[in-house]
């Protein structure tokens, strides 16, 4: 076993450091799970390990294995995650009034960016011969974990709020997981999963508290850096739930600058829904009124984000910012993205597009700047929201007269 490129784990609260393997999840100096750990690397060693061409040809995130905190002799559990397209988006850019490109991470194996992290955590669980994996999830992490558990042949037990969209419950069931629909909020499902982890010793992939799994999300930053070399965007836009994704992307991008692969880094723009605004409130230093999250964008319906500290680091270190959008704006953005560029996002995946609008209006993003929005999840998972965003089909009789009636006899 060897992971010499990983230096240590540092607590974001008290700065205590631990050797890899010394602690499993969070810093023991704090009650609960607030002592989130951050993996620190030896970049000289990573440089020795990394010799891939940065030519934009990315078959999967394992191109960046040299950066990932897995043992040298571990076999990746992979379904080909990462390597997603970065699209020019001329019609969307025109509608928004700013040059915009779209990274479509909804095209990952289970339809969500989280597959990057899941692949790393299940690889580690397998390498440690752990037979049962678990997590709490608003839906996507559960489906993702279930898929990779099936791939690895390990048991999977999931805690999800019982009001998760049906598509997100169906998927892990097909993957063969035990889906435990908790009669409560995501926050309650999370607490229950932590209790079960302690009680039974299952391997926990939860956002934030598993210090290694979030490191997989850095590869979206590596990829965007590689894909935009020479034309790095001014802004990189993500939706924020627990706040892990935006931090991971920032860390990845910054690493590529540190290594000299790109000359600039973007400013990070975090987008939250009005009904789940805790990170935004912390960034702008308003007190948060209540912890109950309520938004159509279920993947970011997080009342008590587990990774506020890291998310704030990404926003502050990059001279970035955050904005809020309401559900109507999110659904309008879903329709806009689909109809202008053929990219189908779930509400949380479309929220960054709505966020760009808001940031332009607030003067945060300027019209002469450039933007990359990251679509974190695929629209097929939540067709109910999609129908709300786009209206219903036009019903017609099964004859040509009915078509004539709609389009006229010349069919235009
Ligand atoms: C989980 C998720 C997010 C939020 O990611 P965090 O790391 O929790 O901030 C955004 N969009 C989608 C589709 C997700 O599944
Ligand atoms: Zn600590």
Question: What would a concise description of this structure say?
Answer:
The protein has a domain at 87-110 and 211-390: 3-Layer(aba) Sandwich (Rossmann fold). It is built from 14 helices and 13 strands. By secondary structure, it is an alpha/beta fold.
Could you explain how this protein is built, in words?
With 412 residues, the chain is α/β, with parallel strands linked by helices. The chain has a domain at 87-110 and 211-390: 3-Layer(aba) Sandwich (Rossmann fold), CATH 3.40.50.1100. 37% of the residues lie in helices and 16% in strands. It has a six-stranded mixed beta sheet with strand order 4-5-13-10-11-12, with helices on both faces. A four-stranded parallel beta sheet has the order 8-7-6-9, with helices on both faces. The chain has a three-stranded antiparallel beta sheet with strand order 2-1-3.
Summary tags:
single chain, 412 residues, alpha/beta, Rossmann fold, six-stranded mixed beta sheet, four-stranded parallel beta sheet, 14 helices, 37% helix, 16% strand, globular, binds pyridoxal-5'-phosphate, binds zinc ion
N to C succession of SSEs: EEEHEHEHEHEHEHEHEHEHHEHHEHH
Rg on CA atoms, Å: 21 Å
Structure class: alpha/beta
Q: Strand order within the widest sheet?
A: 4-5-13-10-11-12
| Strand portion | 15-25%
From the 3D coordinates, which CATH architecture of the domain at 87-110 and 211-390 would you assign?
3-Layer(aba) Sandwich
The CATH class of the domain at 87-110 and 211-390 is Alpha Beta
Mean pLDDT: 93
Largest sheet: number of strands, sense, barrel closure? 6 strands, mixed
Low-confidence stretches: none
Number of H/I helices: 14
Shape: globular
Say how many strands there are.
Answer: 13
Terminal CA distance: 66 Å
